[in-house]
Specification:
With 343 residues, the protein is of the alpha/beta class. Helices cover 30% and strands 29% of the residues. It has 11 helices and 14 strands. It has helices at 24-32, 45-49, 56-62, 77-88, 109-115, 202-214, 238-247, 262-271, 281-285, 302-311, 326-339, and strands at residues 13-18, 39-43, 65-69, 92-96, 117-132, 147-158, 163-170, 173-183, 186-191, 225-230, 252-258, 276-278, 292-295, 315-318. The chain has a 9-stranded mixed sheet, sandwiched between helices. Strands 12-11-10-13-14 form a 5-stranded parallel sheet, with helices on both faces. Strand 1, helix 1 (24-32) and strand 2 form a beta-alpha-beta unit. The radius of gyration is 23 Å and the shape is elongated.
């Protein structure tokens, strides 16, 4: 239930430029995946293009990212120029390509120059399997080799200065459906997925959009999720195994362990120097450096401990069985979903 936060900071504020303001809810669902509230301001091209609309400096100062939602035909040239200037200064620009089957309009030369790409062909709403392109980098890091999609698609034709990010095999040929062009201190991500599926953009596309909106992790940034184990266990037990696994996973670090047995905690400190230890779950819940908690206690205690951690804002992974009753499972699922946390 829910998703782990991305290994990069969320944009403080997102400007959505769309011809259909009702689609703001769709992008609100995408931004909810950060696990924290991200401000979204939705405007139409007419509103932002009017006299007195945001200039380049205002876009840079007020927004960390801009989404251009399928409005290619209505974007005035001066607005495209403002977006380019904002991207150079560090703003992230995401362009959701229009499904060409719905319109005869093509991208303007200015928009294609900004994107470093342009739409080539389109495919109707269906179920697809996409794959990250070779060397697509931080945008697809740690994502599965095949990503299920339910959406309409636009094939994107990238230019030399854009990187292919995602492709779908159609008609025995790989069709690029997402590209990224670095631009100054920012960049432009082109998304060929329209968000037309039953679940909107779906988990895979939503994760890509969040990463594109946040931009690449900065060198030296705090991009590591702190992991803790409740029920560290005996020497060579579950705590040790989870600690080793965390150390082998980019973006995870074992930072704390909880156990009622002081001897086991002493062993944990020896196995992982610098580890913080606690004898009660309350101490762990109050630890702000813990983002993810693995519950490895006896099954009869799973529900109460997981509930406490979720209420403290932690993502939770439970050893099997998850809990002992359907009522406990429902309570945990509802708590995680309402808080936007992974369970």
């Amino acid at each position: 239930m829910g998703t782990l936060p991305e290994l990069c900071p969320e944009p403080p504020r997102v400007l959505l430029v769309t011809g259909d303001l009702a689609r703001a809810a769709l992008f609100g669902d995408v931004l909810a995946g950060y696990g924290a509230r991200v401000e979204l301001e939705a405007v139409t091209p007419v509103m932002i293009g009017a006299t007195g609309g945001p200039q380049s400096a205002q876009i840079r100062e007020r927004f960390g990212a801009v989404v251009v939602d399928r409005t290619d035909a209505e974007l005035p040239e001066h607005l495209v120029a403002r977006l380019g200037s904002a991207a150079v200064a560090g703003c992230r620009v995401v362009i959701v390509a229009r499904n060409a089957a719905l319109t005869d309009h093509r991208w303007s030369a200015e928009l294609a120059d900004l994107a470093g790409a342009e739409p080539a062909s389109s495919f109707p709403l269906a179920e697809w399997f996409a794959k990250p392109c070779f060397a697509s980098g931080w945008l697809t890091a740690r994502m599965a080799p095949e990503l299920p999609l339910e959406d309409s698609l636009v094939e994107i034709s990238p230019r030399e200065d854009a990187t292919e990010i995602l492709a779908v095999s159609i008609g025995f040929r790989d069709r690029v459906i997402a590209t990224y062009r670095p631009l100054g201190r920012g960049g432009v991500f082109v998304c060929g997925m329209g968000g037309d599926g039953r679940r909107g953009f779906g988990p895979a596309a939503a994760k890509l959009l969040r990463r594109a909106l946040a931009g690449p992790p900065e060198r030296g940034s705090q991009s590591v999720l702190g992991l803790a184990v409740v029920g560290y266990g005996p020497h060579g037990g579950m705590g040790l195994l989870h600690g080793i696994a965390a150390g082998a996973t980019d973006g995870l670090e074992l930072v704390a362990a909880c156990d009622s047995d002081p001897g086991r905690l002493k062993a944990a400190e020896e196995q992982f120097p610098g580890l913080r230890t606690a004898t009660s779950a309350d101490e762990l819940a109050a630890d702000e450096g813990v983002h993810v908690v693995v519950v490895a206690t006896p099954p009869s205690t799973h529900s109460a401990i997981a509930l406490e951690m979720l209420r403290a804002g932690k993502h939770v992974a439970l050893e099997k069985p998850m809990c002992l009753t359907l009522a406990e499972a429902d309570r945990l699922i509802d708590t995680a979903e309402s808080a936007g946390l992974a369970l």
